[in-house]
Amino acid sequence: MRPPLTLLAAAFLAVFPEPAAAHAPNPLDPASAVERAIGPGEVYEASLRLRRGESADIVALQQGIDLVVDLFAPDGALLQSVDSPNGRNGDEPVAILAAADGDYRLLIRPIAANEPRGRFTLRVAELRDRAATERLAAERRRARAEASDWLRPRSAPLPVTGILPDDLPLAPFDALAGEALVVGLGEATHGSRELNDLRLSLVRRLVERHGFRLIALEDSASRWRDLAAYVAGEAAAPPAGAELEWGWIGRRARHSLLLWARRWNLAHPGDRIAIVGVDPQDSGPARERFASFLERAYGAEVAASWAPAAAELAAADEQTWVFGNSDVSAPVRRLVLEAYARVQGDSPLLAQRFGEAATSDAVATARELLQFADFNGGVVAPARSRDWYMAVNLLAATGSSASPPKAIYWAHNAHVSTAATGWGPTGAVLRQALGCGYRAVASTFGEGAFVAQRAGDAENRLLVAALPAGEEETIESVVAGTGPGARLAAWPCEAAAGPAPWLREPRPLRWIGGLYAPDTPPAGSYRPYRLTEAFDAIAYLPAVAAEDVPPDRPAVPARPRPQPPSGE
């Protein structure tokens, strides 16, 4: 399945359910299952009556359609929005612990308007009275304690600030780094200060102690290519038009990383670090250069035929700033593919006419535009996802030598994860390519604040939101149980069969995307992960603070989706 604009954009759909239908919900029968067809714009409502202290496990089996299951309390409050990372096929499990007597309502809906029509089966997997629920709670406490016990000898303390002293012992992480070719460093939010400081510290440790020399960011490939000579210390200033700060996601940390890498390169001219963006979005400056190159290489007629496609790409790419509609039409996707093939195929001759640097830049830009058009161009075989292309670009940046540089992949937890889905993620693609040469490190927190874009806001404003401490049945609570304060735990690659059973089942892990609604219930800030399957390490900070809100957030008008001709 092709994901929306980014994995993070799915968060908007997860916390903004469709309006409830006017009819009464269908009561669930614990003895029988419901089998239904469902398609875009449709919802199915069901309810289960429970008394306080009772509990139930409900499963919606997806068949050919990606669904979200919203759970509402008897008073109408949204308790959960469940969307497991399993694409269009598989279970969406919903656990209900009744805090009050009444009807608990479930609303089943497609995750997006472009989902195909499919089916689902809804059933009550287990229904427990109060005594059975109490026994289950005791069993879960024992299971969580067993999981903490397994992680404890594999963990080490961290400073609660996330800033690591140079002499800090961190044996679990150092062992992982010593075995890896690529290390993914994740984050639970895009806008929490301590998570960014921890990642900056881990990057420094990987460079200084373990010889990593390539830093690949979930960020604009074009912008970082423009800054390559400046970061390397080969240029005294960035090129005209290039920026050192842009966007809001990770701005402070990204700028700190850039300046630190430049200082390193000036001090170590024979042992440089490279920073590359691997995301083929936000390519405005390079797109303009590509149009100019086409006119120089092929003439005004070709440039004129390219202009409408360039305009559509620009309109789509602008939406990446605000998680908007970045759809690319099939004709433009085909034209971009032809342009890339032409420039790539002609590159030996073009290099003689315009030089290696200009030709290489044109080929790289055409490749980024093709990638962008491909993953935004709908389900057209053999289209690839954004995560697939980030993996491709990272591996391309390591080069083809027998001894490629060891690399760091800096992205959201959702992207660094090795848990395979229909669209990736990047970490799963890298695990398939590199085996245990790729290691994924998640980072998360107990309570605190973050910056995000206000979901559904026409002015694209940013907000600072805060979350209370999580519930007991979360990955955060188990990692916190390994010791006081902040902790980092790591385990052997492909250890999924060895850990405590609790760690091998889907458990809630903090997951806050770039879009966030202020009225999101606390349960909406989680996604289920099998910890030891999806990651090779996890860093936990008890509390985090929000990054500063940049003052220059652009207000990008919404881009409507094209309407099909009448009769279709």
List the domain count as a whole number: 3
* Number of DSSP E strands: 21
In the CATH hierarchy, the architecture of the largest domain is: 3-Layer(aba) Sandwich
Total DSSP helices: 17
Report the biggest beta sheet as strand number plus sense, adding barrel if it closes: 10 strands, mixed
Taking all Cα atoms into account, the compactness measure Rg is: 24 Å
- Overall structural class, as computed from helix and strand content, comes to alpha/beta
Helix content, binned percent: 25-40%
List low-confidence stretches: 1-22, 564-568
The CATH superfamily name of the largest domain is EreA-like (biosynthetic domain)
Termini separation comes to: 24 Å
Q: Please report which band the strand proportion falls in: under 5%, 5-15%, 15-25%, 25-35%, 35-45% or over 45%.
A: 15-25%
Compute the average pLDDT.
90
**CATH fold field value of the largest domain:** EreA/ChaN-like  fold
* CATH domain class of the largest domain: Alpha Beta
The coarse silhouette is globular
